[in-house]
Design brief:
flat, 59 residues, two-stranded antiparallel sheet, alpha+beta
Length: 59
């Protein structure tokens, strides 16, 4: 088997990032699957776009 990986380590979205002694789980992220949230919000009678917002953040 040959494993090809663009990053320094294998793992894809299931990675770990360490910055200044802090460890961050880099995924997987449900935000890459908006239909999951849409279905969840629809079950409550709400629409996702009017119920949430997202923004960039930094450590």
């Amino acid at each position: 088997m040959t494993v090809l990986e663009q990053a320094e380590t294998a793992g894809g979205k299931c990675g770990l990032v360490e910055v200044d002694g802090y460890r961050f789980d880099s995924g997987p992220s449900l935000l890459t699957m908006p239909w999951v949230f849409e279905k969840l919000f629809a079950a409550t009678g709400a629409r996702l776009p009017t119920s949430s917002s997202s923004c960039a953040s930094s450590p």
